[in-house]
Write the structure tokens for this entry.
Amino acid sequence: MLARGAAPRDDTILIFAPTGRDPELIARMLAGLQLTPRALPSIGELCAEIGSGAGIVILAEEALTPESALRLVETIEAQPSWSDIPVLLLTTAVAIARTSQPVLEALRQRANVTLLERPVHPLTLISAVQSALRARRRQYDVRDYLADRQRSEERVRQAQKMDAVGKLAGGVAHEVNNMMTAVIGFADYALKQLPADHPVRPDIEEVIKAGTRAAAVTQQLLAFSRRQPHQPSLLSLQEVIPELSKLLERLLGAEHELRLEVPRDLPPVLADRNQLEQVLVNLALNARDAMEPGGRLVIAGSIVEIDDGTPPSSVVEIRTGRYVRIQVTDTGQGMSPEAREHAFEPFYTTKPLGQGTGLGLSTVYGIIKQSGGYVWIDSRLGEGTTITVDLPAVSEALPAPAERAPGPSRGRETVLVVEDEPLVRRLARRALEEHGYTVLEAADGREAIAELASGEHPIGLVLSDLVMPRMSGRELGQEIARRYPGLPVLFMSGYTGEDVRSRGLLEGSAPFVQKPFTADALARRVRTMLDGNPAGDAAALTGSC
């Protein structure tokens, strides 16, 4: 059977006519057409050549016996679905009339046969050969089209699968962020109230450490789903990578060698530095676990120009443009085809239980895709692994980053906190009260509307969760805008700002703060919004509609 991707030998004409001078005469007629006639002495060799990419077959009727015809038909029927090799059968008028002849009839019904009546005029034979070769080339065009479509469909399926898992990861991250907001926040409050020698302090510190580790896993999930907070800046890889080398050497250990091959003339890239460093750390850790003592990890940088004629990879399709390429190559044990196929899926790992979360490469995938780049793996068992990352090269400089905001000023306004999770609601209340605000609580949007309508308290701002039962934060915001125009609403969620908009939870550029947050960060954002609404106190709600 012709292997997928094999090039057809279009000029090869297989001739099976073991008696007479037909092979010699046919070869002489075709010699001037730059074709390659091959006379074969046995049906076995003919069947073997059919699977090697031949153009057509010329067959003499007298060469067929019931056994050889059966073998030929079986070979032809074993071709791929796109292949139907043309057979030119040299026969006589008497044989054509004997349509009941079993051998000839079986071949005509089950193969792509064209009958040529002897004696065959040279022009007739040449015309038939050329027509058959054109048909054969169209078959190979169909093969290539089907192969391209299969690759495209596979890329689409993979993208859909990664997107679906990414949405699931974002949902998990939302719930974890909700819980970690309460766990870390209240544990920190408790720790601040204890003296340095209190016996409970170590226990609370362990709670905070565990919560921080859980939050780190959440960030990895968000990175995989491409919903991690992304703060890009103009980065010079010839500075970032060497500055990270000391950390990478410690991670690899003394038994492994780290080699950097980063030229000085690399153009800058636009990426989040923390995330890019996380990519390199994750790749170094994976390489370390795959290598025996004495292994070597090489991080190399280069500039590549991708154009329409440059196939950069067999597994990803890269847009044309100029890229900075980072290749991380190890001398480890390599990866099986199955491991390569699933490597970027979250929680997939080949490591023993308890030695890996399976989030390392999925995090790499999410960060690079979020940065507008591409990543793929080249690896074989026993031959090490190379992971290639392409990031778009940029030439424009970004404006200087803004100066760090000062600590939040104390407030005196009343804030209505709307949150269905009691722990988060109480934490937000405490954070705002410590900064001078009066805080009211509501468990969902309907309670918030009732509180606003009561007119018992002049409310200067509403802090509302987005995902709540009965009435969502978005619906609450729309109702407030209709009833009380001018009242500022600050939304919060365990999802990121990008994710809440992609999920339709929030419209446009509505103010938003992501969980988990610190008390200072929340108070600063509330203060900023209130200062941006100078009439907030004077126009505080009285409850009238």
Q: What stands out?
A: Confidence is low (pLDDT under 50) at residues 1-8, 352-357, 533-545. Residues 122-192 form the longest helix (71 residues). The chain is about 45% helix and 20% strand. The first strand starts at residue 9 and ends at 16.
